[in-house]
Design goal:
heterotetramer, A mainly alpha (227), B mainly alpha (97), C mainly alpha (219), D alpha/beta (204), D: alpha/beta, 5-stranded parallel β-sheet, 4-stranded antiparallel β-sheet, globular
């Protein structure tokens, strides 16, 4: 616990470093110019939203597999992670469409990556509506977890199978316009630093939220004991 | 949850600000043109790179970096204080358990 | 287990046949929407892909009206506990799964001819068209059986079922629409989509089967 | 059904809903031939305890074990237990006989069903839909459904609910006739039913 608390504090150094590197150290991309700098925010944010999704999926699997209840509040961790994931998914969509507007001229054109992030968004929305419908229901943790697992399993069907079966649906040249930009070493290392710092940022928020959840439960239990 | 609401507002500003200037610089040489105008104006992409290579340090880039850093510092202070407060509460809760 | 499944299926068909509530709602919804679209179109045929999209939208929403009923009814009428004491978990899932497939088949059998009749659809590849509709409907019913159980346990409130089904069913709808529109076009359709749908429904059925006990059994 | 004697044990059972504890530290055991009644004021957790003993719900702490020769797997419990309670409702759209056909597991259940229907006086109403039954008739049907498969363990939650005096007498004489070969657990506040059982557990 102490070790995690200490480790996630590195975000206070990592994040400013990533920001300064992204603006000053990394050279502008050849085709896109300085607008490419949004990459150092957009890519890590997208990565965090997928990471949060996977973490909540894994926490859900563990929650259902762990019938003895030896790990407490795994469903709460899944819920918190999904909450962070939802925010980051929205941010990914916003930054992504700004970038798309700058480089392709349109805010939205349903390429595979945009499609998959929107599906993640829909899954989160569905997850929160089902959680909301069961505010005081004992089944809440299990049903929400089962839904997240089911959703996580459908995702690969989008991400990998669909573009392969229907190549014509997704105009490749558009995605390649930014995928094939040459990344030099400085750009690559800046991106790496940004990804690491956003990941640590995510861990930091999740850690704090989990602790807050624990405190909340503790307070409510004590209040009832006082009755 | 309150935490997540505040975070969402703050983090939302971070990349949006980052996006704004680059658009400006990538546009026509006139540095005074505002980011919003560029975003909503005509197309600004393909002709940009040729004029881009001057390496003349633009103040806009620094300004945006300043804004992003400022937002980050605010966020970091918020997170740090929250962390401290949670730790304090945890310490108070522990002996009773 | 086989006997349990048969007992439960017989009971479900009997109950559903006596009330016919879900089926009536779904079928009338399909008829009303089809006629409304035909009316607004004023007899002008749509392009093939638009026809495919509209067809699947009608199928999706008609099915959404009825597919959750199988579990929601048990909770609403307070018979879930009786079902639980009489039939074991796995048999409950399998029989409800089969029932939903049958329900979906009826919906498709109602919607598709109506649609073809009212909207001047010209089917170029008849066999491919039928297979696309059947495979799409099969995957839809396969994926929603467990979601129906979740909604029932969550209180079965209104449109919750549609909201949580949509992200899961999106790949199915997507593939079904493009496969159907290929069957309405002169271009030769590819068989890959049917394979995808079968793989998807097989996969999701197995996962649902494994997850079902966590939803059905209470703590 | 196997002929080995059954025994049901519960140790340190506790149940919490959300954060409020319903009961805790309940220990009990019963073997074939023994009977047990659970009493307590409304809201003291009688029904919940019954559900926990039947394996329908999980206790927050402690565990329940059903043994016949060897320990029986929890998912199989309900095929050894005849459980009924206020929340176990038969299907309204079906007739009494159809409900019985749905719940019947072994092959000889048909004859037993006929006999039980006659015993409990539902013979003339067997082909009526349950939604046209009176509440007393429904309660009789529920009891028949619980007794139907001749389970070695009977768990009856408020079995006398809505029954007239004739119905209560029928129930009592039936329980009396099978008590030697079964475990009987009754949750009730009726002193007559309480006397029927060997031991009493008081909740609340």
């Amino acid at each position: 616990m102490k070790a995690i608390s200490a480790a996630v504090k590195s975000v206070y150094i990592l994040m400013p470093a990533a920001i300064v590197m992204a603006f000053l150290w990394a050279p502008p991309a050849q085709v896109l110019g300085d607008s490419s700098r949004i990459m150092y925010f957009h890519v890590p944010i997208a990565w965090v939203s997928i990471l949060a999704f996977i973490v909540s999926g894994i926490a859900s699997i563990l929650f259902l597999a762990d019938r003895k209840g030896s790990f407490a509040r795994l469903d709460g961790i899944a819920y918190n992670s999904a909450e962070i994931g939802l925010v980051f998914t929205v941010l990914t969509v916003i930054t992504g469409s700004i970038w798309a507007r700058i480089s392709w001229g349109v805010f939205w054109n349903w390429d595979p990556r945009e499609t998959s992030i929107v599906i993640i968004l829909l899954i989160y929305i569905a997850y929160f509506s089902i959680q909301g419908a069961m505010a005081h229901n004992d089944n809440r943790g299990r049903i929400g977890s089962a839904y997240l697992i089911l959703a996580m399993i459908t995702l690969p069907f989008f991400a990998f199978l669909v573009p392969r079966i229907y190549p014509s649906l997704h105009p490749d040249p558009i995605i390649n316009a930014d995928r094939t930009i040459f990344l030099d070493d400085r750009m690559r290392s800046t991106l790496a630093v940004a990804i690491v710092s956003f990941t640590v940022f995510y861990c930091n928020i999740l850690h704090i939220m989990n602790r807050m959840m624990k405190l909340q439960n503790h307070i409510e239990e004590n209040r009832h004991e006082a009755d | 949850m309150r935490l997540i609401n505040i975070l969402s507002c703050a983090v939302l500003l971070l990349p949006a600000a980052g996006a704004a200037i680059p658009a400006d610089r990538a546009g026509e040489p006139s540095v005074t043109q505002s980011a919003a105008q560029v975003l909503h104006g005509q197309d600004m992409q393909k002709n940009a790179p040729s004029t881009e290579q001057k390496q003349e340090p633009s103040t806009t880039l620094y300004q945006v970096m300043g804004v992003v850093l400022f937002i980050w510092i605010g966020l970091a202070v918020f997170l740090f204080r929250l962390d401290r407060r949670v730790a304090r509460l945890e310490n108070r809760a522990q002996p009773k358990q | 287990m086989g006997k349990d499944i048969l007992r439960n299926l017989r009971k479900d068909f009997l109950v559903e046949f006596r009330s016919r509530f879900a089926l009536n709602v779904s079928a009338s919804f399909a008829a009303i929407v089809t006629i409304a679209i035909s009316l607004t179109a004023g007899g002008v045929p749509f392009p093939a892909n638009v026809q495919a999209i509209i067809l699947w939208i009608i199928i999706f929403f008609s099915a959404m009206n009825g597919l959750s009923h199988i579990f929601v009814r048990e909770e609403d009428q307070g018979t879930a506990l009786f079902l639980r004491t009489a039939v074991d978990v796995d048999s409950v899932f399998v029989s409800k799964f089969i029932f939903n497939q049958a329900f979906m088949a009826v919906i498709l059998a109602v919607v598709t001819p109506l649609y073809l009749f009212f909207l001047q659809v010209r089917v170029v590849h008849a066999a491919h068209f039928i297979f696309s509709i059947a495979a799409g409907g099969f995957s839809m019913a396969a994926a929603t059986t467990i979601l129906a159980a979740m909604v029932a346990k969550a209180g079965g409130k209104g449109s919750l079922f549609t909201i949580i089904s949509f992200p899961i069913l999106l790949p199915v709808l997507w593939i079904s629409v493009s496969s159907t529109s290929a069957a309405l076009n002169a271009a030769p359709p590819a068989g890959g989509s049917l394979l995808f749908l079968l793989a998807f429904s097989g996969f999701i059925s197995v996962i649902s089967f494994l997850l079902f006990r966590f939803i059905w059994l209470e703590d | 059904m196997s002929t080995a004697p059954y025994s049901l044990t519960g140790e340190g059972l506790a149940k919490k809903f959300g954060r409020s504890a319903l009961f805790k530290g309940i220990c009990l055991s019963a073997a074939t031939g023994e009977s047990l009644s659970i009493t307590g004021p409304n809201g003291s957790g009688k029904s919940t305890l019954m559900k926990i003993l039947a394996g329908i719900q999980k206790p927050t702490a402690g565990n329940v074990d059903l043994v016949s020769g060897s320990s029986i797997e929890k998912t199989q419990w309900l095929s050894h237990i005849g459980y009924t309670g206020p929340l176990v409702n038969p299907y309204d759209e079906l007739t009494g006989l159809e409900n019985i056909a749905f719940a019947a597991r072994p092959a000889d259940a048909g004859e037993r069903a006929g006999r039980l229907l006659e015993t409990f006086g539902l013979g003339p109403h067997r082909d009526k839909k349950v939604k046209h039954y009176s509440s007393g008739m429904k309660q009789r049907l529920k009891l028949i459904l619980a007794f139907l498969n001749d389970p070695p363990v009977l768990m009856l939650d408020e079995p006398g609910m809505n029954l007239d005096s004739a119905g209560t007498a029928l129930l009592h004489s039936y329980l009396e006739s099978v008590r030697k070969e079964k475990i009987i657990i009754i949750a009730t506040n009726d002193p007559l039913e309480e006397q029927l059982c060997g031991r009493t557990i008081k909740l609340g």
